[in-house]
Design brief:
alpha+beta; Nucleotide-diphossugar_trans; transferase; 12 strands; UTP--glucose-1-phosphate uridylyltransferase; six-stranded mixed β-sheet; two-stranded antiparallel sheet
């Protein structure tokens, strides 16, 4: 706020692309080509961004500006994108349940639109591999300072058969620091068994009066694997950016800009000079 009063936070730019485009690119890089976006009121700009802009394309084509023409066509050609409106904000669990008819009986990934993962870390691809090997559902876990766990869903874990894979035995949504089962939090990447839909239908509103995906996963963790139960965690030690937080958003823009081939060297030079001038 106040930038997101009329603009979805997923559309805030990270250098020259909205955050949501990086998320779609991550899904495509992991081999997913069918994307369903759960949107809501005042989020029409997301649909417009991933649509064709014929007038703008013609104007750039007439100017011979092939570079910018390619950049605006890119988002419309990333994947087959569909949209469903959530209607009213009843929580992440409810948003996931809105995808039931589209997903059917297939396993699927959930990527939160304000959580960015560094492309070189291949987190989603690794999670899909874990799902294929062990079945059930898979969550991404990241270790944080114990004082931070109350901001997130938190997992109780036991050692798995691989160094970066654990068994999730319990999950708690935003526990008090002294009640958290660990300091491994759930970040915005999930690969879910379709059994989650039946569980979500029976999951009552939890923290904040919303249907929490964490509560449904807690149920899945205790279910028979033959019925789609079981939850594994991938221990993620790469780079994650929370664009819903003001400071993290600023850090994200700066880091992504410094890594750009066309901007990085000049921007980093200016940044060093700027920092040196500060008191």
């Amino acid at each position: 706020m106040p930038a997101t009063k009329a603009t979805p936070k997923e559309m805030l730019p990270i250098v020259d692309k909205p955050a949501i485009q990086y998320v779609v690119e991550e899904a495509v890089s992991a081999g997913l080509s069918d994307v369903l976006m759960i949107t809501g009121r005042s989020k029409r700009s997301i649909e417009d961004h991933f649509d064709r802009a014929y007038e703008l394309e013609d104007a750039l084509r007439n100017k011979g500006d092939q570079v910018r023409l390619a950049s605006i066509q890119e988002s419309a050609e990333l994947a087959q994108i569909h949209y469903v409106r959530q209607g009213e904000p009843k929580g992440l669990g409810h948003a996931v349940h809105c995808a039931r008819q589209h997903v059917g009986h297939e396993p699927f990934a959930v990527l939160l639109g304000d959580d960015l993962i560094a492309s070189q870390d291949n987190l989603l691809q690794r999670m899909i591999e874990v799902r294929q090997q062990y079945g059930g559902s898979v969550v991404a876990l990241m270790e944080v300072d114990p004082a931070q766990v109350s901001k997130f869903g938190c997992a109780a874990i036991s050692a798995g058969s691989e160094e970066d894979v654990v068994n999730v035995t319990d999950l708690v949504e935003k526990p008090a620091a002294d009640e958290a089962p660990s300091n491994w939090i759930i970040i915005g990447r999930y690969v879910l068994d379709p059994a989650v839909f039946d569980v979500l239908e029976k999951t009552p509103p939890g923290r904040g009066g919303e249907i929490q995906l964490t509560d449904a996963l807690r149920t899945l963790a205790t279910m028979d694997p033959e019925a789609g139960g079981g939850v594994h965690g991938v221990l993620f030690r790469g780079s994650r950016y929370d664009t819903g937080d003001k400071l993290d958003y600023l850090r994200t823009v700066v880091q992504f800009a410094t890594e750009r081939e066309d901007l990085g060297a000049e921007f980093l030079g200016w940044l060093k000079e700027f920092v040196n001038q500060q008191d």
